[in-house]
Amino acid sequence: MAYVINQAAPPPMIIEQHQPQMIIEQAPPPMIIQQPQPQVIIEHPPPPVYVQAPPAMAVVNAPAPVAIQAPMKSLPAATFCRFCQQQVVTVTKPINGVLTWIVVGTLFFCLIWPFCLIPFCVSSCKDIKHTCPRCNNVLHTYKRV
C-alpha cells in the first residue's frame, strides 16, 4: 500500500523588491532683496533779496510839455502852435488845390464844360489850410493829391 502523505505546502515566498527612491532636489529660487531707494531732496536756496534805495531827487529843467498832435486832415485839430507857443485848435479853410484843377480839366476835355466849374464849389475836392486862431499863421496844409 502506498502511503500518501499530505503535507501542507510551504507558504509562498513573498519577495519584496524595494525600488530605489528617486529624490529630485531643486535649487531654491534666488531671493531678491529690495532695498528702499534713498529719497532725493532738492533744496533751492531762497531768492536773493534786492534792496533798492529810493531815487534821489534831481532838479531837471524840462521843456514845456508837447501835446500829441492829431493828424491834420479836413477837420480842425488840437495842436501846439510853434509861432505863438500856445496849445490851440486850428481853424480850417478850403483852398483850391491840384485835385480841384484835375477834376475841372477832366470835365472840360470830356466836353462836359457847363459842369466843369462844380469842383470850385465842392470842398471835398479842395485842399485844407490849418491856421492858428491866435496869431493867424499857417500851421499845416492838407493836400488831397
UniProtKB/TrEMBL annotation:
Any single GO CC term annotated in Swiss-Prot or TrEMBL for this entry: cytoplasmic side of late endosome membrane
Location of this chain's protein in the cell: Endosome membrane; Late endosome membrane; Lysosome membrane
InterPro entries, A to Z: LITAF (IPR006629), LITAF_fam (IPR037519)
A molecular function (GO) term: zinc ion binding
Source species, domain of life: Eukaryota
Domain LITAF: 60-144
Pfam hit, one: zf-LITAF-like
Membrane topology: Peripheral membrane protein
Keywords: Membrane, Metal-binding, Transmembrane, Transmembrane helix, Zinc
Transmembrane region(s): 98-122
Recorded family membership: Belongs to the CDIP1/LITAF family.
UniProt name for this protein: LITAF domain-containing protein
Protein species of origin: Silurus meridionalis (Southern catfish)
